[in-house]
Specification:
It is a single chain. The chain is α+β, with helices and mostly antiparallel strands and about 425 residues long. It is about 10% helix and about 30% strand. The strands form six sheets. Strands 6, 7, 9, 10 and 11 form a five-stranded antiparallel beta sheet that branches. Strand 4 and strand 5 form a beta hairpin. Helix 1 crosses helix 2. The radius of gyration is 22 Å and the shape is globular. The structure holds the ligand Nc1nc2c(c(=O)[nH]1)N[C@H]1C(S)=C(S)[C@@H](COP(=O)(O)O)O[C@H]1N2 and molybdenum atom (MO). The site of molybdenum atom has 7 residues, from loops.
């Protein structure tokens, strides 16, 4: 395995061989409790089970720090996920190579994972409670059964994209997960409308912002410290396409994607879509939870040169994500014998729709309009395809450029910003014609 797991750059196996208890701490985010020593429990057991791919019936017989053989064979397999590139295993962060995102609806196995903290120990749907409080007339505590019975249940295809997707291409580099292209997905989500639940709770006149809280815990292990809690302005919260979701692609939500209940706030940074959702709190200030303040999910409000120092006050909170597209077929690096080929992929545009996708095989000198489908529903990504003809054998790049319905197109170069957000530069793949 090549994944580095701690600051010293030791890999998981060396780590377990050297110091199993420290390894448990690194992998599972906490010191094995004295009375727990000798067997895995709770989050540790859940993570170990997730890594292995199934439950471990005799886990009580496993000594602390024991490395299961299955992990040795395939160290970072995450149950129910397939082909993801793991960027980090504490917290778990994994993205999907572009060619594995070819489906119109992203299968759960291909939905990326972005965790800021330690996955909750308890993800039991039957006992799950969601609290709505703060500036509402009727504070409420709802079970998942309450949500299903009291509100209209809807199913929609919704794009979730991490605000830092594409960060790996920044130069000078930006700190944080080095996402390439695959921190984006469009799964089918089933749940109730956030707006309906807010209306039932009766949002007070002076509420301006939501605050979302989940059941995951901070990497430091500090009691009561949240890894992330973001929110959105009331206007956005009331958008009918935001869901409080309890199903993903017709099944239970994957544990790494926020089981059993999560928010899906499409079109805005993925961080607005709180996983393992426990609480929605209505506030009369811009929410100031972890990852809402400072420069987190913020970009300079004016163009800056690459590497430029930007004063804190010049940063503003990211709202809608920009227009973007992916080439999901063929896979980059292909050699084809045929001079004609179909390329295709998806395009999406934050709160807007995509109006056009163009492709180029001559480094942007000429462009050809691709066929573009309308979205299945607002906030679903749109499929596009184009039939290409290569004049002679040789090396080509296929570039794709989407334009939204406000006339805004993807740029060729990254608009650099200090934290490496919102890279929506055109996707390019290479093709060799033999
Ligand atoms: N509770 C909780 N919700 C969360 C996060 C998290 O760490 N904890 N990460 C956020 C971020 S930054 C993103 S991009 C999305 C990713 O959703 P996914 O992991 O289901 O792909 O979840 C968001 N919701
Ligand atoms: Mo994110």
């Amino acid at each position: 395995m090549t994944k580095k797991t701690d600051d010293k750059g030791t890999d998981l196996f060396e780590l377990y061989a050297k110091d199993p208890e420290h390894a448990d701490e690194v992998v599972f985010g906490r010191k094995p409790h004295k009375d727990r020593r000798g067997f895995l429990k709770g989050a540790g057991l859940a993570s170990m089970g997730a890594l292995i791919g199934t439950a471990i019936p005799f886990h009580r017989n496993m000594p602390a720090g024991f490395v299961p053989e299955a992990l040795a064979a395939n160290p970072m397999k995450i149950t129910g996920k397939d082909g993801l590139t793991i960027l980090n295993d504490r917290p778990v962060n994994a993205e999907t190579p572009a060619h594995l995102l070819n489906d119109a609806v992203t299968p759960t196995s291909r939905h990326f994972i972005r965790n800021n903290g330690v996955v909750p120990e308890n993800m039991e749907a039957d006992s799950w409670k969601l609290r709505l409080d703060g500036l509402v007339n009727n504070p409420m505590t709802l079970s998942i059964a309450d949500l299903k019975s009291k509100f209209e249940v809807v199913t929609e295809q919704l794009v979730i994209e991490c605000g830092g997707n594409g960060r790996a291409a920044f130069n000078p580099p930006a700190r944080g997960n080095q996402w390439t292209l695959g921190a984006v997905a469009c799964s089918e989500w089933t749940g109730v409308r956030l707006a309906d639940v807010l209306k039932a709770a009766g949002v007070k006149q002076n509420a301006i912002y939501t605050a979302h809280e989940g059941a995951d815990t901070h990497l430091s292990g500090k009691e009561g410290k949240l890894p992330i809690s973001r929110g959105v302005p009331i206007d956005k919260a009331m958008n009918p396409h935001n869901l409080i979701a309890f199903a993903m692609n017709g099944k239970e939500i994957h544990p790494m994607n926020g089981a059993p209940l999560r928010l899906v706030v499409p079109g805005w940074p993925g961080s607005c879509s709180q996983k393992w959702l426990k609480r929605i709190w209505l506030r009369d200030i811009v929410h100031d939870g972890p990852k809402m303040t400072g420069t987190a999910y913020r970009v300079p409000q004016h163009p800056v040169a690459a590497g430029e120092k930007v004063p804190k006050d010049d940063f503003g909170i990211i709202e809608a994500m920009p227009v973007k597209s992916l080439i999901t077929t063929p896979q980059t690096g292909m050699t084809v014998a045929d001079k004609s080929m179909t390329v295709g992929g998806h395009a999406w545009a934050g709160d807007n729709a995509v109006a056009q996708v163009d492709v180029s095989i001559d480094f942007g000198a000429t462009w050809m309009k691709a066929d573009l489908n309308s979205p299945h529903n607002p906030y679903a990504w749109q499929q596009w395809s184009a039939d290409l003809k290569f004049p002679i054998a040789g090396y080509y790049e296929v570039w794709a450029r989407a334009t939204d319905d406000k006339g805004v197109s993807q740029p060729f170069a990254i608009a650099w910003n200090p934290k490496g957000y919102l890279n929506n530069s055109m996707h390019r793949i290479s093709v060799r014609v033999s």
